[in-house]
Amino acid sequence: MPYFIRWQDVVDILIMSFLVYQLYGWFKNTKAFQVVIGLGSLCVVYLITRNFGFFMTSWILQELGTVIFVLIIVIFQAEIRHALYRFSPLRNLFGRQESGQLLDLIELSDSIFSLAAMKTGAIIVFQRKEPVDEYLLHGILLDSAVSGQLIGSIFMDGTPLHDGAIIIKHGRIAQASAHLPLSINSEIPQYYGTRHRAALGLTERSDAVVLIVSEERGEVSLALSGELRPVENPDRLCSQLNELLASPIPEAGRSSWWERLRRNFWSKLITVLLVIISWLIINAREGEITNANVPVKFYNLSNDFLLTNSSNDEIEVQIRSFSSLIPAPKENEIAADIDLSMVKEGNNVITIRKEDVKLPPGVVVSRVRPSTLRVNIAKKARKWLRVEPKIIGSLAGKSKIWKITVEPSSVLVEGSENILSRLEEIGTEEIDLSGIHQNSTIERRVVSPAAQLRIIRDGNVKIHVNTNR
Question: Across 393-450, where does the E strand assignment appear?
């Protein structure tokens, strides 16, 4: 595998190939697919004109892109809604499915071939997982049981409901005389009439199974996924209906993964190649190179040590994006994490690696400056220090200080062993005696004499000032 292709890129190509192939399978015989081909041609023209410096043409196509995108959403909202419904992972949980056990398929098959023998046209829709109501027009609600005699009487020439389709949902006839959307597939043979085109049009938009009886030829056919399947006899029709209505996708369920991969192999191969070419075009232009000041963060320092000083609080890094589609990260999204697990007491020189800089996906570090850091490590210690209040000013009048006591008299301080060894006391915030006229208790915070020292006991101490007159 070439060094510039990551495993994420391979997964990215496979995901996009799957999505593009699914969209192709759903829209290949619809008006939306023809529009997508036209838009793809415009995109190719835009890329060519942009790369060859035809600024006016590329600018016009770029401005038209936003308008066309909005028009597609408005015009093809039904197809888009249907595609999103197919993508939904919850439709298998909440979608209702027709039960083939409610239908007498033997009687139904005999009735259908009786209509074919009399050359009486008929079209029957079996709804499966996906609802078909949004594609139906002018249907008459029935909600009646399915029987061969009822279907024969509905399609008998001259009856009020013979012109249109019967819709069977959940084992019952839901509608009659319903009009279906016609297929726009130009490859349908001319001898197929309106019934066949309507059956194909509905199966192109849903997973429904449509049964057609030809009025001119007396033939019986099944429409599924935009394809017609001739049926020779009642037994074959009964078997196929039982298979299709018992499981919406029986063929995929019985076939192995290798057989499913080989099915429509050339269409899948072309899809993968187109996605790979698109990926190469997108990644042919590298993203911008930028410089950023990155804060330095330290971790893994032993509890026995203390970081007292660092030569740099931030470093300068040069970053590069894999693709022009990846935006440059913001400075607050980048940090340099320096591992201090191997440091020793005293001065240490640490090499900054590119791997120490944490970046969003799709971005790499080109250069780090400076390449090293100097850190000073001190041994950590604890010591009790006497609290010495810091007094300024003097008492008013003839008053004198008799005694000053502090509660608590000492505090525990943690920090560098070298600094603590030289200290015996620690001061407080200033206390101005000029405002004191009698015995008083004052609260003040203890002030650390160095940044490397930390007072364990947080909060104020009480200073009791006793005076005499």
Answer: 400-407, 410-416, 425-432, 440-445
- Spatial separation of the C-alpha atoms in residues 297 and 294, rounded to whole Å: 9
Say which residues have a Cβ less than 8 Å from residue 232's Cβ, sequence separation at least 6. Answer: none
Angle at 329 between CA 323 and CA 330, to 5 degrees: 160
Judge whether residue 25 has pLDDT over 60.
Answer: yes
Runs of H (alpha helix) within 263-388: 265-284
Q: Is 1 in a helix, a strand, or coil?
A: coil
Strand 227-231 vs strand 289-299: parallel, antiparallel, or unpaired?
Answer: unpaired
Q: Which domains does the chain have, with CATH numbers?
A: 7-90+256-282 (no CATH), 100-247 (3.40.1700.10), 289-370 (2.170.120.30), 380-468 (2.170.120.40)
Q: Which range among 97-106, 165-174, 323-332 shows the weakest confidence by mean pLDDT?
A: 97-106
Residue 75: the pLDDT is 67
The answer on pLDDT for 295 being more than 80 is: yes
Q: Are 145 and 222 in contact (CB under 8 A)?
A: no
Q: What is the mean pLDDT of the chain?
A: 81
- Give the burial class of 20: count Cβ atoms within 10 A of its Cβ; 0-12 exposed, 13-18 middle, 19 or more buried: middle
Q: What pTM was estimated for this model as a whole?
A: 0.45
- Give the C-alpha separation, 340 to 357, whole Å: 15
Neighbours of 270 (CB within 10 A): 13
Give 398's DSSP letter.
T
pLDDT digits (tens, 9 = 90+) for 168-184: 988 888 888 888 888 87
Q: Locate 458 and state its tokens.
A: 């947080």
Q: Does 93 or 62 have the greater pLDDT score?
A: 62
